[in-house]
Known about the structure:
With 383 residues, this protein is α/β, with parallel strands linked by helices. It has 3 domains: 143 residues, Globin-like (Orthogonal Bundle); 89 residues, Translation factors (Elongation Factor Tu (Ef-tu), domain 3, Beta Barrel); 114 residues, 3-Layer(aba) Sandwich (Rossmann fold), CATH 3.40.50. Helices cover 42% and strands 18% of the residues. The protein has a 6-stranded antiparallel β-sheet with strand order 4-3-6-1-2-5, covered by helices on one side. It has a 5-stranded parallel β-sheet with strand order 9-8-7-10-11, sandwiched between helices. A hairpin with a 4-residue loop joins β1 and β2. The radius of gyration is 22 Å and the shape is globular. It catalyses: 2 nitric oxide + NADH + 2 O2 = 2 nitrate + NAD(+) + H(+); 2 nitric oxide + NADPH + 2 O2 = 2 nitrate + NADP(+) + H(+). Pfam families: FAD_binding_6 (PF00970), Globin (PF00042), NAD_binding_1 (PF00175). One of its GO terms (molecular function) is oxygen binding. InterPro entries: Cbr1-like_FAD-bd_dom, FAD-bd_FR_type, FNR_nucleotide-bd, Globin, Globin-like_sf, Globin/Proto, OxRdtase_FAD/NAD-bd, Riboflavin_synthase-like_b-brl.
Amino acid sequence: MALSQETIDIVKATAPVVGENAEKITSRFYPIMFERYPMVKEFFNQSHQRDGLQQKALAGAVVAYALNIDNLGALGGAVEGITERHASLNVQPEHYPIVGECLLAAIAEVLGDAVTPEIANAWGEAYGFLAEILIGAEKAKYAKTAEKAGGWNGYKSFKVIKKVKESASITSFYFEAEDGTPIISYDSGQYISMKLDLGEEQKSVRNYSLSNWGGKYLRISVKKDGDFSTHLHDKINEGDCVELNAPYGVFKLAPGEGAVVLVSGGVGITPMLSMLNQLSKNESTREVSFLHGTQNKDELAFEDEVKALTEKDNFSYEVSFSDEGKKISIDDLKKASNNVKETDFYVCGPVGMMKALCSDLKSWGVADENIHYEYFGPSGTLS
């Protein structure tokens, strides 16, 4: 059912005041929801709650929806990213009324008497309309995933068949399905969601990029940084089982014949290594340059694997160590692409690095469709 014109008009008219208070609203939304429905806490990374990233991301999404409520086509890319993330967390239709109730409660609490019954009803209708769009898209994704060989929905038990220390801070975990089903196919660059019991009220969930492609196992490579990853490093060993959801994510190799430059920093190497595996194993004829930056040799992961994957004449590999005063710059990207602006650039690493490189690429004149990046955390932007 389409939104009424009255609802569209009210939401657009009130969007500026909601926008001015968006982070206040989302900062109240999460405590309200966690108090009323504590069972949903497992869907949210609590470290992102503490540093405000989740609140900021949701505020941006709410405002973008309100401003484009009469032109939802402009939000196509954002909707795809949201539904992929929701699918990775196994979000279900029954979760949407919880969010709607608590979001409207937060709006009413922050804006007070300014929220008339007409305004509350309009925002409630607008939220319900968006929820139906997301639910429909997620239903289709779940069905598509379940239809794949080895596919499944929700969380499923996987056994750790190998655990390998890759660098001073990164360890890889190799998984096979405990029930013996084959490994599901996925796009390089995608991630899986893992659920662990850390001894808290609810189990905790984190997303990790897959660091391989086309193998007989799933592999993630995790930097020890925070309670969840520390538990993985210290407590999960070969033979143990963990709960995994199927691979999802919009960070993928774009089809084409032109050159590809893969740029990573630190543990941002994980989705890039997956892409490099796909390009190399498929005998790609594209010119492929892999640029990786890390602190020092102790932190350098996958050196032998990357060298083996880049032995072909049309592949190249270069490492920069920040402790030696070398960081990847726009000049390195220009050199790697032979100064061809139509090259596809893929970037993943620390936010500061990604902001600088993506900004420099745009200033150089590279089109947005040729700049691809993966943001580890709530759906963020580099603006």
